């Protein structure tokens, strides 16, 4: 892994770095335990963590679960084509570049000032094949050629909520169009009790993809607190056993629901269409305290 360009990025900072972006106040907070590690917050809501010295390090639990999915989409080390809907600090794109050299990646991020801020403060390695496009995630997805991506990751939040037009069956059909046969679609979803949004998203994605599984903190799945869940979908059999093993051994253990257990969890939830779509629920203030 080439690190030459990364060394030009930020060194140890005593104080956070702040800048106004389209989505609010962006803030990079130094990691006390990692000399070149930083957490990106927007309006005090944690978005991403990056370690410039070790892009393969994933600090947030949901990002570790997305990393597992990136690991399992193809044999270890094989280059892949990845579309990231939502940029943040480009954490998962950095991870794929570090673990799968020569991969080709596209990032679609609507917040142009945020992209400029991250590029300046946490620069990408010039050798990585990562293209960052400005614009709306769904509009960017529509420009991707048919069957281009091995992996599509949706991690889009505006004001800590997923926009409504990224939650529908029509959007999910566009995702499948852009995926190669056997490709993976992974969506970061946020919800709290009674988990109506999460269950509706499972029902929605199920109308397009035959194979699904869900991984999250057990407390989130039991409806005890607000949090993130990662939904994985494909047209091929999923590596549920390996994903379960990895989630169970993470620092913040996760649980994987699949098959009958996922059907029971989803209950009678109704798929979301463009006509009925609503943004994901806003997290309670206590989540970021």
Automatic annotation (TrEMBL):
CDD domains xrefs: AdoMet_MTases
Signal sequence region: none
SUPFAM superfamilies: S-adenosyl-L-methionine-dependent methyltransferases (SSF53335)
Annotated Pfam families: Spermine_synth
Record keyword Cytoplasm present: no
A GO BP annotation: polyamine biosynthetic process
Basic residues: compositionally biased ranges: 1-10
Name used for this protein in its record: Spermidine synthase
Biased composition, class Pro residues, residue ranges: 280-289
Keywords: Polyamine biosynthesis
Region (Disordered): 1-30, 263-289
Superkingdom: Bacteria
